[in-house]
Amino acid sequence: MKFLIILALVALASARPDENYDRYEYFDVDELVSNVRLLKAYIKCFLGEGKCTPEGSEFKKWIPDAIQSNCGKCSDKQKHIVGRVIKAIIDNLPEEWNKLNAMHNPDGKYDEIMKNFLDKYT
């Protein structure tokens, strides 16, 4: 339920995983992607439309970097988690995805990179 931060993110750079992300290496993504209500709560946090959990606040700070670097600070396993979360949002909450994507990718310059990331990690 936590890793949604790195949600709407992604761009295709290969970088060493960041130690700040290590604690999410074993995140149970199934819990999050199977719970639309939980996805909505995190998205509201990221959009500044709702309360944030401590984890949500931390994730919110990482979103721009994750989008611009294609989750370059994430391990391969974390990229698969991020991909599944983004796909769940796109499939289940397309309006919310559009808002989040517009906030961090207003000119659409990361759209093709995002598509390639999702093709590879979902």
Automatic annotation (TrEMBL):
The protein's name is (African queen) hypothetical protein
Superkingdom to which the source organism belongs? Eukaryota
Q: Which UniProt keywords apply?
A: Signal
What is the annotated signal peptide range for this record? 1-15
Q: Which InterPro entries match?
A: A10/PebIII (IPR005055), OS_D_A10/PebIII_sf (IPR036682)
A Pfam family per the record: OS-D
- Record bears the keyword Signal: yes
